[in-house]
Amino acid sequence: MSDYMHSFELFEPASIGDASKLINKFGKDGWIIAGGKDSLDWFKDRNKRPKAVINIANLKELRGIKDNKDYVSIGSVTTLTEMEDSKLLKKHFPVLIDAVSRIASPQIRNAGTLGGNVAQDTRCTYYRDGFPCYRAGGNTCYANTPTAMNREHAVFDVARCVAVTPSDTAPALVALEAEMVISSKGKTRKVMAEEFFIGPATDITRMTALKKNDILVEIRIPKKWAGAKYYFEKVADRQTWDFSLVNIAMVAKTSGGKISEVRMACGGVQCTPRRMTNVEDLLKGESAGPEMEKLAKRVAAQGAKALNYNHFKIPLMGNLAARAVRSMA
Ligand SMILES: Cc1cc2nc3c(=O)[nH]c(=O)nc-3n(C[C@H](O)[C@H](O)[C@H](O)COP(=O)(O)OP(=O)(O)OC[C@H]3O[C@@H](n4cnc5c(N)ncnc54)[C@H](O)[C@@H]3O)c2cc1C
Ligand code: SF4
Which of 10, 93, 149, 188 is deepest in the core (most CB within 10 A)? Predict the structure, then answer.
């Protein structure tokens, strides 16, 4: 029955308040949709069948990129293309532009939103194909067996599930110390990007701090990192329309030829973006150069444990860290 969606009721709320009421009303039977690029896959495969789909893509209050005094605000339903075209983001946070421009294809970026990008579910083949694994409420992991297909899976911090977040913006937002603004039942709370992405040990049924009644309203990026040195690289099997195997995002400041501040995060290696604090620590106060490249390469993947088919991620992480350091030299 692939490509043939189940029937559901479609709602087009006119405000966040209305959207929130609908989500509360339908609870587990409700599903927020923005660009639909992740959601429609689930529906077409018939592995998720919500009774009510609540489309928030047309809510003007959730769209747009605004310059505030201390931060830049990106509305959650702002499309990835709108981000790519934003002069403000290009000027202040080119690392995010590099990450966005490597997502999927122009067509997908035209509809896909930043909110949907960070809230999307994992692409683990078994889970997406409807296998009753831990994440789907079952009692086994099909990806962590001697013969399983686990090339895309985690090398760090596994807890029953070995799946990773596929979001390319996630490591850039973590590096930039972004803050996620979430609305729930009329109340608003803020969560740092680093805490927004959650691992299976916290809750195996979710990939983010978003709960069923939550709407991600905006993503705020502090100007602290505006104009910083930066690096983003994504390694995938194909140059376009493909998910990352491993990606890396870095922002850094230098003073008198030395690295004064640096934040580095790596995607595709654990369920959540991985802060590379061991690399950051050794870089601070040093000058970028061949010696630091070598050291970064050596420590980047320390503690990683490969599955059967993803050993390549360990040297790849080291090489990406070294290249990030080289970009500063
Ligand atoms: C062929 C293909 C290739 C892709 N390649 C990449 C890639 O290379 N890199 C990458 O990062 N991604 C990739 N994606 C994943 C993804 O589709 C896009 O990144 C896109 O940004 C998702 O956004 P959306 O608005 O379409 O999501 P939707 O499908 O609308 O939403 C995704 C999820 O987020 C939830 N959600 C959306 N907005 C909100 C909100 N404001 N508040 C609360 N929950 C919300 C939805 O309920 C749903 O669970 C790819 C997708 C496809 C189909
Ligand atoms: S890696 Fe996670 S999502 Fe994939 S089969 Fe195992 S438990 Fe399920």
Answer: 93
Cβ pair 154, 272 in contact under 8 A: no
- pLDDT (tens digit per residue) in 211-237: 989 999 999 999 999 999 999 999 999
Residue of 15, 103, 164 to test ligand 1 pocket, by largest number of atoms within 8 Å of CB: 103
Atom of ligand 1 nearest to the CA of 77: 41
For 264-321, what is each residue's pLDDT tens digit? 999 999 999 999 999 999 999 999 999 999 999 999 999 999 999 999 999 999 999 9
Domains of the chain: 1-60 (3.30.43.10), 61-119+166-224 (3.30.465.10), 228-328 (3.30.390.50)
Under 8 Å CB-to-CB from 263, ≥6 apart: which residues?
Answer: 174, 175, 176, 177, 225, 250, 251, 252, 275, 280
CB atoms within 10 A of CB 285: 10
pTM confidence score: 0.97
Whether the Cβ atoms of residue 140 and residue 157 lie closer than 8 Å to each other: no
Q: Whose CA is nearest to atom 37 of ligand 1?
A: 116
